[in-house]
Amino acid sequence: MRVAKSISIFLAAILACLNPAASLACSACMAGDPKTAGTYLSMTLMMSALPLVLVGGLGYWLWRRHS
After folding, report:
1. What is the number of structural domains in the chain?
2. Are 30 and 40 in contact (CB under 8 A)?
3. CB under 8 Å to 30, separation ≥6 — which residues?
4. What distance lies between CA 5 and its chain's CA centroid?
5. Which of the residues 2, 13, 55, 63 has the least number of beta carbons within 10 Å of its own beta carbon?
6. Are 43 and 56 spatial neighbours (Cβ–Cβ below 8 Å)?
7. Which residues constitute the domain of residue 40?
8. What are phi and psi of 59, to 5 degrees?
């Protein structure tokens, strides 16, 4: 039972990789839909800046707390 499920998942993954239309959903290439390119760019910038802001905010909070 477990082997049959693993084989079916493996075959589904192979078929998904062989489907060229699936690459249109790639958010990194921004070629799928030009209307969403700005959204992808802004979310990429936000996700890149969020950890820096959180670490900086924590550092600022600790600095203010201990000074």
Report:
1. 1
2. yes
3. 36, 37, 40, 41
4. 27
5. 2
6. no
7. 2-65
8. -60, -40
